[in-house]
Amino acid sequence: DADFPISRSYIAMLSETGATPVVQSKWFATVVVESPDSTVAEQLQQLAIVDSVKWIWKGNLRVPAEEKWEDRFVSEDEPLHNEYGYSYKQIKMLNGMKDNVLSVGFVLLIP
Predict the structure, then answer these.
(1) Which residue would you say has higher pLDDT here, 102 or 26?
(2) Partner of 19 for a Cys bridge, out of 33, 42, 82, 100, CB 3.0 to 4.6 A?
């Protein structure tokens, strides 16, 4: 198996059935689509490029869009008041505090 992105022509073929591609995974060679028309699943199954069709949700509930990317990783605490900045909790959890980090040759840069 090759590690190639899913072909745009394949995505176009799926779209021609009335399905709307939502997300794709080259690792699993998978495309998740949505459609208000349940007969689209049958049309998808008839395509030579489709191995199988699996329902992951049937219903009218729409999940709200994710929060904005820039708001997603903003910490609410104020970790910049210590020398490790935003990485403090991660470094502490991995037992990599100053003596350990510096003893293996890393240089601590403080902006």
Answers:
(1) 26
(2) 33
